[in-house]
Write a sequence for this structure.
């Protein structure tokens, strides 16, 4: 079995902002089977669906801001149902909602509500982790608490293999831990060590670096990750899709060149 491969459009967000259709066309030409959106670039859902249909790309999933879904679960998710996505992921929690804060229990309850709203529209809700979910609360990772507290019929996993590794766990082992509950796996490679200003690197928090960092995101197959193991675990655990994501380019390559290099590497592994 060889899993279909999608790419998170956030990886090439500036190209997508400049010309979404041309960027999606390049993604298709690289050999990607599908795309995961993070924003719709001012297009109507019907227009996004039409682009994907025309190009033969599956709009498999989308990252949708947590607070947008809390404010209007049905209304926001209905847009993505119109596009035809099968999955929507909670992509990121800002500091005040993260594990260890007073609001994290509220996040868990809200995710149950969002998951139920998604189900009504034929969408499965996912949670996309970073490394801050590997904070231990009463001896247990917050990420595991989330999946224990929210039933599997309301929330599935979208394990980001880079952040699992940075969080201190083996990505392949963690995928197997959630066997049957991880329909989508994020393939992300990296090089270097964790620093105090990690989120500067994903383009979210703009603050001065606190110390020099040698950390960088890399095209899949160009960093420290063991992707043959990760892919084998993904298949064994019942994943339906793997999705390439690279938050920022590196190695002197453009964002489009980075995702092309990732696709070429995965082809050498039979994907």
């Amino acid at each position: 079995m060889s899993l279909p491969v999608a790419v998170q459009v956030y990886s090439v967000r500036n190209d997508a902002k400049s010309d979404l259709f041309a960027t999606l066309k390049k993604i298709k030409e690289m050999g990607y089977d599908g795309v995961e959106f993070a924003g719709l670039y001012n297009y109507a859902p019907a227009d996004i669906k039409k682009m994907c249909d025309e190009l033969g790309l599956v709009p498999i999933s989308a990252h949708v801001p947590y607070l947008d879904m809390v404010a209007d679960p049905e209304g926001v998710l209905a847009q993505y149902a119109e596009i035809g996505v099968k999955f929507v992921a909670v992509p990121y929690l800002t500091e005040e909602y993260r594990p260890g804060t007073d609001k994290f229990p509220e996040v868990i309850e809200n995710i149950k509500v969002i998951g139920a709203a998604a189900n009504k529209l034929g969408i499965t809700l996912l949670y996309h982790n970073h490394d801050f979910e590997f904070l231990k609360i009463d001896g247990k990772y917050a990420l595991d608490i989330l999946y224990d507290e929210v039933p599997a019929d309301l929330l599935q996993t979208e394990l980001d293999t880079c952040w699992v590794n940075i969080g201190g766990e083996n990505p392949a082992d963690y995928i197997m831990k959630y066997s049957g509950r991880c329909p989508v796996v994020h393939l992300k490679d990296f090089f270097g060590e964790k620093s105090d200003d990690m989120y500067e690197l994903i383009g979210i928090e703009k603050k001065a670096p606190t110390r020099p960092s040698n950390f960088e995101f890399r095209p899949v197959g160009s960093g420290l990750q063991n992707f043959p193991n990760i892919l084998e675990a993904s298949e064994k655990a019942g994943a339906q899709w793997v999705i390439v994501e690279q938050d920022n380019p590196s190695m002197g390559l453009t964002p489009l060149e980075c995702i092309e290099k990732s696709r070429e590497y995965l082809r050498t592994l039979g994907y």
